[in-house]
Specification:
The chain has 123 residues and is an alpha+beta fold. The protein has helices at residues 12-22, 27-30, 32-36, 47-61, and strands at residues 3-9, 66-73, 83-94, 97-106, 112-121. It contains 4 helices and 5 strands; from the N terminus they run βααααββββ. Strands 1-3-4-5-2 form a 5-stranded antiparallel sheet, covered by helices on one side.
Length: 123
């Protein structure tokens, strides 16, 4: 099976840069004062920022791959500065198509911040 795993922390600066690129300036992602008053107590990552890291990993495994679909769930928050494990695992292959398990896990407690699947086409 083809797989790739990296450990990485995303910073508040990463959240802010992603907000600027995506236009998602929700204060839960970019305003520490606002976020401190929420149930999370601090800023949380954009879900799609997590997937963007995974997509970069997919491109390393399968250069030039084209995404055919994705299913993503975000059961727990990922916080700025928190150590995370990003994992991509091929679970099926059919000709030029691949199905990949995509997962982001908080290292401290093993909780999933992202649990999903990507379907890609490769040349």
């Amino acid at each position: 099976m083809t797989s790739l795993s990296i450990d990485r922390s995303l910073s508040q600066a990463d959240f802010d840069l992603f907000a600027g690129v995506s236009g998602d300036n929700n204060p839960i992602h970019v305003d520490p004062d606002f976020s401190a008053r929420t149930r999370f107590g601090r800023t949380v990552s954009h879900g799609m920022l997590l997937y963007t890291v995974l997509w970069g990993m997919i491109q390393k495994l399968y250069p030039g791959a084209v995404q055919a679909g994705q299913t993503l769930m975000f059961p727990n928050p990922a916080y700025a500065g928190e150590p995370l494990r990003f994992e991509v695992l091929q679970t099926a292959a059919d000709g030029g198509s691949r199905t990949l398990s995509t997962r982001v896990t908080r290292i401290a407690d093993g909780a999933f911040a992202l649990d999903g699947e990507a379907r890609i086409h490769i040349a």
